[in-house]
Amino acid sequence: MTGQIIATYAAALSLLIGSGFIVVGVIGLLKFNDPMTRLHAPTKVGTIGIGMLLLASMLHSFSIGSSSLHELLIMAFLFVTAPVSANFIAKVNILRRTCETPPAPPRDDTWSTLNTPEGDPDAAVSDKN
Amino acid sequence: MSAATSLLDIASLIAFAALAIGQILSMVRLVLGPSYGDRILALDTMVINALGLVVVLGIHQGVEIYFEVTLLIAMLGFVSTVALARFLLRGDIIE
Fold this sequence. Notes:
The complex is a heterodimer.
Chain A lengths: L1 H30 L3 H6 L2 H21 L7 H25 L25 H8 L1
Chain B lengths: L1 H31 L3 H26 L5 H24 L5
């Protein structure tokens, strides 16, 4: 019985921590003034915010008696896919030149993200932004 | 037990409010732009916030049937983010 009460309190605390991180991350998404800096802020929403909400869901399922660890699957999926999508968005920023262009690579002409093949009109248009 | 349960109710209401604020602010970023990367990032954040809303709804109602919904939203959000970014990067999604 006391374990269930402790689990309920812990679930409420996790919900509060998670909602705090979500608000902080989204305010950062709105207030920062550089695309790469904005990319940094919502990672708090995706990892700690949603992680705490899923932890609260697990603790709540313990407190109501039907314990389940399903949410670990969602947590693992989100933690694996968040860096991949962030990398893709950063590559879009580099391609559209909305951030500082990285310095030239030492042993090649240009970065593969910025490389446009010869005679490709679509790539030339997209490179112009 | 009742004090803990009422605390959980209040906490889930606060989490609903935080997620709603998150949806509204990231929608503002989606409209403002200014670059495509920001719009994709705002859409990704909105998908993650929707996922959190479903999770908190499951806690609030005390049921577990929203697990599959959450997993599906997570997978669709990842795939749509990657598809949008790839379309801008390569001009095509599947080459």
